[in-house]
Amino acid sequence: MNFFSSLQHESSMKPTADGKDTRELQARVRAWTREALGLVNPCDEDIPITVSELRCAEEGCPDVETVIGVLYTNPRRISKYKVFMALQDVKQEDVVKACRVAQS
């Protein structure tokens, strides 16, 4: 297990803000992220994607947000996308919009 896959594994074990298991929700968001970013080739399967639900303490931010991290290895960089709602409420169009906004 490499560093990135251990990050992905650890984040999948954390519950949502209301204590629910997140593995299925995270897998769904990861799949939508891969599709939205065009990471659909077999070689792209090695690109780890983390999905975390975090409490947001910043002013004007909702109480909970979903943060998606894409850990590219060549070149080595991390891209972060935010969906300003709880993980269990995230829909595919929210992920697509977050990816578009961050890339513009």
Descriptive overview:
- The protein has helices at 3-11, 23-37, 92-103, and strands spanning 49-55, 64-73, 76-83.
- It starts with a helix and ends with a helix.
- The model is unreliable at 1-12 (pLDDT under 50).
- It is α+β, with helices and mostly antiparallel strands and 104 residues long.
- It has a three-stranded antiparallel sheet with strand order 1-2-3, sandwiched between helices.
- It has one domain (3-103).
Number of separate helices:
3
Number of DSSP strand runs: 3
**Distance N to C terminus:** 34 Å
Count of distinct structural domains: 1
Approximately how much helix is present in the residues?
A: 25-40%
Secondary structural class: alpha+beta
Stretches where pLDDT is under 50 for at least 5 consecutive residues are 1-12
| Beta content | 15-25%
What is the overall silhouette? Answer: globular
- By oligomeric state, this entry counts as single chain
